[in-house]
Design goal:
- This protein is an alpha/beta fold and 325 residues long.
- The chain folds into two domains: 26-195, 3-Layer(aba) Sandwich (Rossmann fold); 207-324, 3-Layer(aba) Sandwich (Rossmann fold), CATH 3.40.50.
- Helices cover 39% and strands 14% of the residues.
- It is built from ten helices and ten strands.
- The protein has helices spanning 26-35, 61-71, 94-101, 117-124, 158-175, 180-205, 223-229, 250-263, 277-286, 309-324; strands spanning 54-60, 75-81, 105-108, 129-132, 140-144, 147-151, 214-215, 232-233, 267-271, 289-294.
- A four-stranded parallel beta sheet has the order 2-1-3-4, sandwiched between helices. It has a two-stranded antiparallel sheet with strand order 5-6. Strands 7-8 form a two-stranded parallel ribbon.
- Helix 3 crosses helix 4 (117-124) and helix 5 packs antiparallel against helix 6.
- The longest helix has 26 residues, at 180-205.
- It binds zinc ion.
């Protein structure tokens, strides 16, 4: 399994394929830094890739793992929001700008998960082909304060990632036709693993009584999971599809505590990219457990149960079912 955070080693020979991207030179790095005076310091550019690798940048760690499984050693991958990062509130760095300026392909989640990506793309002067991995997926929408909002957390339903794998394979094949067959075969092998994962989650959830399938997290990140696997998401304290709102009011916390007591939920969940303090306070006030962390918006570090998408979903299903039993 290739981790998205690693850069794979390319083939030992150079194929006669014309690339859209060029290698970063000290002069181009300097130019980029000069062009972006709003950014205080010039960071070092990512290491140059083998000239046989397609330069791909991906906005967040979960998506990057999916891309790595499809592209494997044909890609030089850069990920903007890494393990335990929060894409909702992310602030791009000069390193991101340089990587994007030099990339052939930008793969993003879409559905408003990365509110900063349009500006970053524009500032970078990048000519990268933009690929929205969630294209074609039926989005979940919610009414928030009278506005219709789109739920970006589509990866929480495995069939969506099966569809995204197809989109990614087609985009990589178009950008790098010499390896099209390899992308297709890798995607197919990964989709088989995803189908097994989907079945595993359904079987695991079936061991939990229907009335116990109630999830409380800090922000509304598990709506697609709930829809696919038959859960209800109780009012979240951040009351939002993003984490941008900041801490909730005392009244909002009291209302969530009331809901938890009323629904007799035995446990609430911390999210890996968020400060656990809020859920600790809610759990203490409601008198329930809060000892479990779920991987919602990003992967965790290599070596952890959240190091890949397959592992994080497996872990989340086990944790949710065991905590609510
Ligand atoms: Zn989120």
């Amino acid at each position: 399994m290739i981790s998205a955070s690693q850069t794979a080693v390319g083939p030992s020979f150079i194929r006669p394929v014309i690339r859209h991207a060029t290698l970063i030179t000290p002069a181009s790095s300097l130019l980029l830094c000069l062009l972006t005076l709003a950014i205080p310091a010039c960071e070092k550019a990512p290491p140059p890739s083998s000239s046989a690798q397609l330069r791909v940048v991906v906005t967040h760690s979960i998506l990057s793992d999916v891309v790595a499984n499809v592209g494997q050693d044909h890609l030089h991958l850069t990920t903007f929001v890494g393990p335990n990062g929060d894409a909702h509130t992310y602030e791009p760095t000069p390193r991101d700008l340089i990587a994007l300026a030099d990339a052939a392909v930008l793969i993003e989640n879409g559905l408003q998960f990365e509110p900063w990506v349009d500006k970053l793309y524009e500032s970078s002067g990048s000519k990268a082909v933009r690929v929205v991995a969630s294209q074609g997926i039926q989005p979940r929408t919610l009414n928030e304060d009278g506005h219709e909002e789109t739920d970006p957390h589509c990866w929480q339903s495995v069939p969506n990632v099966i569809a995204m794998t197809q989109t990614i394979a087609a985009a990589l094949a178009a950008a790098d036709p010499a390896h099209a067959e390899s992308y297709r075969a890798n995607a197919q092998a990964y989709q088989t693993q995803l189908q097994e994962l989907d079945r595993y989650i359904q079987e695991k959830v079936s061991t939990l009584p229907a009335e116990s399938r109630v999830i409380v997290t800090s922000h509304d990140s598990l709506g697609y999971f709930a829809q696919r696997y038959g859960f209800t998401v109780l009012g979240t304290p951040l009351a939002s599809l993003t984490t941008e709102a900041g801490d909730p009011s005392a009244q909002k916390i009291a209302a969530v505590v009331q809901e938890i007591r009323h629904a007799q939920v035995p446990a609430v969940f911390i999210e890996n990219m968020q400060n656990p303090k809020l859920m600790a306070q809610i759990a203490a006030e409601a008198g329930v457990r809060f000892d479990s962390t779920l991987y919602t918006d990003s992967l965790d570090q290599p070596g952890s149960p959240g190091e890949t998408y397959l592992k994080m979903m497996h872990y989340n299903a086990d944790t949710i079912v065991e905590s609510l039993k």
